[in-house]
Amino acid sequence: xxxxxxxxxxxxxxxxxxxxxxxxxxxxxxxxxxxxxxxxxxxxxxxxxxxxxxxxxxxxxxxxxxxxxxxxxxxxxxxxxxxxxxxxxxxxxxxxxxxxxxxxxxxxxxxxxxxxxxxxxxxxxxxxxxxxxxxxxxxxxxxxxxxxxxxxxxxxxxxxxxxxxxxxxxxxxxxxxxxxxxxxxxxxxxxxxxxxxxxxxxxxxxxxxxxxxxxxxxxxxxxxxxxxxxxxxxxxxxxxxxxxxxxxxxxxxxxxxxxxxxxxxxxxxxxxxxxxxxxxxxxxxxxxxxxxxxxxxxxxxxxxxxxxxxxxxxxxxxxxxxxxxxxxxxxxxxxxxxxxxxxxxxxxxxxxxxxxxxxxxxxxxxxxxxxxxxxxxxxxxxxxxxxxxxxxxxxxxxxxxxxxxxxxxxxxxxxxxxxxxxxxxxxxxxxxxxxxxxxxxxxxxxxxxxxxxxxxxxxxxxxxxxxxxxxxxxxxxxxxxxxxxxxxxxxxxxxxxxxxxxxxxxxxxxxxxxxxxxxxxxxxxxxxxxxxxxxxxxxxxxxxxxxxxxxxxxxxxxxxxxxxxxxxxxxxxxxxxxxxxxxxxxxxxxxxxxxxxxxxxxxxxxxxxxxxxxxxxxxxxxxxxxxxxxxxxxxxxxxxxxxxxxxxxxxxxxxxxxxxxxxxxxxxxxxxxxxxxxxxxxxxxxxxxxxxxxxxxxxxxxxxxxxxxxxxxxxxxxxxxxxxxx
Amino acid sequence: xxxxxxxxxxxxxxxxxxxxxxxxxxxxxxxxxxxxxxxxxxxxxxxxxxxxxxxxxxxxxxxxxxxxxxxxxxxxxxxxxxxxxxxxxxxxxxxxxxxxxxxxxxxxxxxxxxxxxxxxxxxxxxxxxxxxxxxxxxxxxxxxxxxxxxxxxxxxxxxxxxxxxxxxxxxxxxxxxxxxxxxxxxxxxxxxxxxxxxxxxxxxxxxxxxxxxxxxxxxxxxxxxxxxx
Lengths: 726, 229
Fold this sequence. Notes:
The structure holds two protein chains of two kinds.
Chain A: H1 6-11, H2 16-26, H3 32-41, H4 44-47, H5 52-55, E1 65-67, E2 74-79, E3 82-90, H6 92-97, H7 99-115, E4 120-130, H8 138-156, E5 160-167, E6 176-186, E7 201-206, H9 216-219, H10 240-255, E8 259-264, H11 269-280, E9 284-288, H12 301-306, E10 312-317, H13 322-331, E11 336-343, E12 347-352, E13 355-361, H14 362-367, H15 393-401, H16 410-413, E14 424-426, E15 434-437, E16 444-450, H17 453-458, H18 460-477, E17 481-490, H19 497-517, E18 521-527, E19 531-532, E20 535-536, E21 540-549, E22 565-569, H20 580-584, H21 597-613, E23 618-623, H22 628-640, E24 644-646, H23 655-660, E25 667-671, H24 674-683, E26 688-694, E27 698-701, E28 705-708, H25 709-717, H26 719-725
Parallel strand pairs in A: 4-5, 9-12, 17-18, 24-27
Antiparallel strand pairs in A: 1-2, 2-3, 3-6, 4-6, 7-10, 7-11, 8-10, 9-11, 12-13, 14-15, 15-16, 16-21, 17-21, 19-20, 22-25, 22-26, 23-25, 24-26, 27-28
Helix pairs in contact in A: 7-8, 7-10, 8-10, 10-13, 18-19, 18-21, 22-25
Chain B: E1 5-10, H1 17-28, E2 31-36, E3 48-50, H2 70-80, E4 85-88, H3 90-97, E5 104-106, E6 114-122, E7 137-144, E8 148-150, H4 153-161, E9 165-170, E10 189-193, E11 199-202, H5 217-224
Parallel strand pairs in B: 1-2, 1-3, 3-4, 4-11
Antiparallel strand pairs in B: 5-8, 6-7, 6-9, 9-10, 10-11
């Protein structure tokens, strides 16, 4: 037996305080297996110990919320006995170490979270952040991550319909890979992870357990250093074919009345899945590790309990259905085994070779994991002094549309199967949110992910509020009623006061905006310690918004027709601080644009109702965000290969501010009839301005400049190919 | 009169079977039977479809493992009797792996998966598969990593001479240009038939072009297949 000493305890990422608590819970010293189990269960990744206190403050309920945070994923009601299951999750650390497998297994994990609940995944999205394109690793990371996401989702046959991809030097050594999945389930066919019924068998199904990913959850809870790439063996390997078999076999089994509880083996593998199921059902578990299907010889209980081999599920089933369960898995060629039984003891008892090798009380371990109120302090942000540059309107526009962050992402999305399953109405390059039809119906789901880390770095609360508001706006622009969000909070080391400040403020921002917009948080994930050698990423709370469109023929994309008029809804104040424009001018300081949530609601409600009531008048809709009015217009011209005549209103003194300002709560509405919209806006006291006419093949800002749309398209489409093929 | 029944062979890892099933039922006006890969009997022999996806994960060459399954052995036998067979995407790959169709489908030119809408010119309208498609150029999505058609120069010539090349990637107006070739296929080839003209393989997905609009080109493709019934 290995004697537990201080070194072993600290190697498990357990503090002295925590070790004391462990001894109190057990009323003795843990053995190595037990210590390993505590270390993963109490890791930041599984226990949310630094953020729990603050996450509890978020609004998580609402009329349409069926299941909030705490389960595998959140669930909302979309009517007609149907529900949407969704969640976003990070795979940042593994993706930096091994981009292809890290990203692929991220997609696999989030899809399992969704189909574990009985849903069939209908779409994947992802939010990606890479370092500066000049950083030597960026190209390889970008290629690997995109290929990993594509290969996994393509093989399983779930369309990857959207997301975002940005570059910034703060991610040079800590890229972010956040994967989101949404699925569809009948309301009366939802499966949960609450284990019940003493004597019920526990079935293991899926890939055989190997030594991969042992302590992955602990790795995801530590900072990187020079040796981080030595952690490669901790990165799991994905097998999308196995995932496909698991998906189909679980769907088949779920039609039978067999499953009592089901949970995928994600981070911390067999440990967290068995503990969480038992803890939720307040029961005990006996595990017989000799029965666990193993890929490698002589695996120890420690390795089996901590392995993060992918594509595995654990379920509690009705004893009478054991035979039919195993038959279904056999049909799909899957390894399944009865590895344990539910008990009444409230303890986890782990047997190996006929002896009890570990015994842990489940409730205290799962529920009384540490909860920290870590100290926080507002950081002082130092701005680099740089020489300012000057741009004309035209050269600034060209610079922005040909920049890595605003170039066409065709190189990425062409690698994603967006059309499989035949329900993708808009993928996210065609509309502000992706729009997926609810199969066999006229309903659709709209979905988007958003975050502006530049704003969040300067003001994490306001930045997070804007993220929530932007996702809300994107859903409305697509013609949807926004329902709820999932969030993926990516930050640095919470043990640092200034990082803890960012975390608390960002959560406050999400709370404020979600409460105001009646837009609850139903699931989420926190990824901390995104730091390398003491340098943290920008705070990046990514918001995944989901909305419903009652009639898919009323969804709106970035469409316009010759002769259409374009109106701005909302006030333009010309806020340039932290805008794309200021950033290309090397002015990287200041505050994000202010956000008035009352105005957000007012403008959003107007657009939403106008689209609904006057569907035939509205050709398209687009929100105004980064890059301001001019970028939103240029995107429309590029997308439609059509020209625009843009007239700057005569009362505008500073046209750069007006064109590039990033004021919030604004939309572009493209309509084929001016009178109606003017009338309705006037009646509802909405600020409305006509600014452009769709015409010809030139993008023209009257009295300023013009450029052919062909040229715009060229500028917009070259960066990725050049970067990758260089 | 009861509807006729066509067969769709399903492998572990097929992922276009549902989409194909829906399109076939709706536009061919038939019922379908999904045949699991380990079934050596294919009862309904009006027409057999091999759908897209990643059969057995396609960790080996695409389609290679699927050729060993009992259902495919039966497909090979029935093909010799003239039963009409259509392989789409992975189905096309499987048919070339079985040698029911000439050539091979290798890694795309850029070695990346590619999913986009592509125009496809119907090169030979004188087949039962294509003669009722009223347009000369259709728009179908493609989605594959290994779709680059390759064969020997001799074979290529023979395919051309026998009019076995049915679909080619083209521009909207039907021009066969290198710039319209998404994957580096020889001569822009997107789909071929066998010499006996009862087996069609194509990389583009007509079953994904039947939704959201009445004039989507997949619809006339499937309606046209009623020729065989």
